[in-house]
Each structure stands twice: as structure tokens, then as C-alpha cells.
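re: ur question from yesterday

yeah so i grabbed the chain u mentioned. its 432 aa long if i counted rite. heres the sequnce exactly as i have it in my notes:
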Amino acid sequence: MKITGFEVVDLRVPTSDQMLGSDPFHKEPDYSSAVLQLKTDTDLQGISVVFTVGAGTDWICYGIQDLCQLVVGTDLEDFSEAPFKLYQRLIDHHQLRWLHDGVFRMAAGAVLNAMWDLWAKQQQKPLWKLLVDLDPVFVADCIDWRNIEDALTREEAIDILTQRRDSVERRQSEMSEIGPKAYCTAGWLGLTDDQILATIHRLQEQGFDSFKLKVGRNKEEDVARIQFMRDAIGMESNLMVDANQYLGVEEAKSYLEAFRPFDLKWIEEPIARDDVLGYVELAETFATASFDFACGEQAASPVIFKQLLKSGAIKYCQIDAVRVAGVNDVMAIILMAAKYDVPVCPHGGGIALCNMIQHYGMWDQVAVSGHSNTQLVEYIDFLQDSVAHPVATKDGHYVTPTALGWGLDFLPDFLEQHRYPEGEVWKNRSTG
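ran it thru and got these C-alpha cells back, copy pasting raw so excuse formatting
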């Protein structure tokens, strides 16, 4: 199968109209994705997304278009025999690597994720099943070990995966219908209490018992909102809060002290995404609190995760499917988390991002950590109608995905209506 071409779509949804997704920094986000469709000389396409929140999506699109020139004309078989070769070709490009992480690494991840999607479709498997079936040595050969071996060696990773092999069939059977346990971000900062309560009640009827809300702009208002949420869900349910990096370290110490009485499960990103020393300091300061710290959705490379995990700074590892350089990087991060016994709780949301992270939750809980006692996978209850195989939940869990690849086949009408700026949704709108 040969890669013959590609299309990149700047896809945006005006979620700012309803303040969905709003947090301290991203006050009026328009949930968006750079959608890559790799064309082949068959009927199959490799599809991936890079989630964004409006302005800047065009930057990602340009980066993806530029990198796709390196895969047009190549054979899928070459990729499937050694995925690390394409990873290295992209990440170590002798000129582009000067750009380092951020847009460059996300664009590289889009290309890699689309190739993994294509391979899974060729093999007639969901992405999680493709990963589960890979030999431990093959997985290790997909990973860039240069800067993480001081935390996890290649041999240790192979050993982790090999030890799990005996229980893989049992775990697949246990998760054949009901997948990872989910939690939902219900408390968007721009919503009213009544709107949040309606969401909570709707999700509770669907079996959810784990909820998150946004905090960070006003301590007194946040404490009142946390109390409101705790009263609404009861003490038996999990409650988490997310500050989206809005605070400095000293400010966070004062701010979070007020959160001690509410039996929170975790505090997510109270400070900058890459302030490892700051997270170490906060972990020490709040060692006796009910909550621990979660971070990772905006950590731009496995090296940042290495520091967060090895230092003991975080107790919940929040991988993102599109922030780092695709499957290869996420494999490394999940394996590091397994070594340090830190639950992987993937960041979800956006446009079709939940479609991707459910596969990582499955791989982790079937073939890596081998259990689902501590992990929660994020879910949002809107924008699930953009693809032909929308995420489904049951009893507060993801329903095990069966669509081939990532399950990212977008509905043509949705793509056409939300293309930016020419789609019908955007033709007569001004943007921020």
C-alpha cells in the first residue's frame, strides 16, 4: 500500500457561544482540530487529528502539510516493519528539529498517528488491539530511548510488557464490552451552577461517579463552586479540579490550602506544565492532603514526563493523544508511568480526542498496567456527533471501541460545515 497524497482540514466549532471548554486561560475557546487524511492507492485512508482551541489551528495545519511531503510515495509496509524509522526521520530532521517541541512535535505526531491508523485498518483491528498484539521487543524498538533511559531502560520496558503477556487474554475478555472507567469535566468555568447541575444529573443517570471542575481565577468563588459540586455529587463520588496552569508556585500554595476540606482526588495543572521543581514543591507542601497532583496534557515530550514521574512530583499521569509525537512517544510515557506505579489518566475532550485516548486506556489496562483499579479516562459529553463511530459510554465506562484504527472517520457534512473559514458555520462570523 503506497501513500499517494493527503488533505489537511482546519476544522473549528464555535463552542465559545455556549462557553463550553472555558477555563481560566481559555475563556472563549472554539474547539478545533487539524484533521489529516492520508490518501493511498487503495480505498483506505489514514486519519489523525491535532486538537486546538481556535486561533493557531492554521499553524498546525501548515506544519502537517509540510511534513506530509516526507511520506508521500512511501509504502505502508516500510512503516509497519519499523515505525521508529519514520519517527526518527521526522523528529531528528536536520533542520526542522531546531523548532523543537510545540507545533513541530504535534505536526509530526499527526503524521505518525495517521500512519498507525492506516496500519491498524490494513490489519482489520482497532488501534488498541494492534498495540496489544505487538511483541514486547517490537514495542521497545518503536521508542526513542536516548533521553529517558535514566528513568526506564529498554530492557525494563520489555520486562514490564512480557510479565503482562500471561494475563492479556484474560484482560481482553474482561474488557471486551466495557472499557476504561471514565470521568467527565462538568464544571466549565463559564457555565452557571444550574447548567453544571443539569450535566451532572444527566451523567449520573448514565452511571458516572467521577467529575471535574475548572478553578483558578477567584479563590472564594472556586471554594463555593467546589462546595456546590461536592454537595451535588455526594462524598462517595470522585471530585477533581483543574486550574489549567493559571497559578504560580507560591500563589498555588495559598490558593490550594483552601481546597483541603473537600476530599478532592487530584489537583490538575495548578502551575506551569513544565515546572517540574514546582510540582515537587507542591507535592511536599500538600503531602498530607487528600489530593495529589495531575499533569501531562500539555507536557510536550517524554523527557518532561520522565522528570515528573521520576521525581515523584505527580501521582496521576495525564497523557494527551496529540500533544507529543504520536503513538511512539505515548508508548514510552505509559511504560514509564507503569514503572513508577503512577496511574495513566488520559486527557480527553475536543473534537474526536476521546476517540483516540480510549485506545491508550485500553492498551494500558490490558497490556501494560494490567488493571483498571486507579485509572480514569476523561470524557466530554458534547461534540461526539462529528464522526461515523462516536464514543459510547455505559455504566460510567467507555464502551470498548470496535471501529478499525482510531475510529476517526469524520462525517462529510460535519467537515464541510465546519471548515475554517469557508464552511457554512463560519462564513458570516467574526472570530477571536
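noticed a couple things. Residues 172 and 247 are 41 Å apart (CA to CA). also The radius of gyration is 21 Å.
anyway ttyl
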